[in-house]
Amino acid sequence: MRYTFDSKATATTTVKRLLAKQGVSHRLFKKMLSDRLLWVDGQAVGNIAINAGQVVRFAIPTTKTVTPEKVPLHVLYEDDNWLIVTKPANVTSVPGPHAPNHSLLNRIVWYLQQQGITEPQPAIITRLDRDTVGLVLAAKHPYAQGRFDQAQHATLEKQYVAVVSGQLTKSEGEIDAPIGLGADGIHRIITDAGQPAQTRYKVLKTATNTLVDVQLLTGRTHQIRVHFASLGHPLIGDRLYGQPSTLIDHQALQATSLSFVDPFSKKQIHAALPIPSLFETLLNEK
């Protein structure tokens, strides 16, 4: 089974221009063209001129995909184009050279294959660090990814909760500090030569440590972890940035809320997770 879509022209144009306005990339269009997956009025076509009112039907080409990994997904939201799933700790968002067959993306490929999708090509829209848990948005096919990339970054909202060591002096604030790659090629550091990075936070609960609600205004690698470490309050469980824990084997950070405007339906899509009970326990760890 392939993903198939219709797009109606509102003015004289060409097939390629019409689909480009809908988020179809040049690369994807070329593959559709070579695989003869474009139709107008029921006839297979190339990049022809079309008039207002004509409908272009197109299908997503099949191609080699990542190896499926047979591990069940926890799905919070699903429709024809999108998945919102939870990512556990110790799993990367996408496959890497050291684990090409083990990632959240591999698991999504297996999930879609069970739905009868031929050579699924999902894409992770909101990646999380290997040891960060919580909500991840995935596009089921390249056309959805293109629609999102074209217009949806401004509507995407993500919230996190974290447990940071110690007690913050302010009940809420914004950390504005550029982040760059450290000399070891692993750590991220605060440096004037880095990329701009802003993190907004609000204290939810304080004990020995502090539970915070966090909103990313930018999306740098390790941003939340680096910013709180720079304040002298690294995340509990974060061995890389200085606060290991005996109660948790990864940083106490969860992507807890995610919302965006669906470019297909124009509806607001939202998903949320409760605060993990372990985070309450970590508030009192010394």
Automatic annotation (TrEMBL):
The keyword Transcription regulation does not apply. Keywords: Isomerase. GO terms for molecular function: isomerase activity. Its EC number is 5.4.99.-. The keyword Nucleotide-binding does not apply. Residues 81-230 form the Pseudouridine synthase RsuA/RluA-like domain. It catalyses: a uridine in RNA = a pseudouridine in RNA. Belongs to the pseudouridine synthase RluA family. Responsible for synthesis of pseudouridine from uracil. NCBIfam families: rluA_subfam (TIGR00005). This is Pseudouridine synthase.
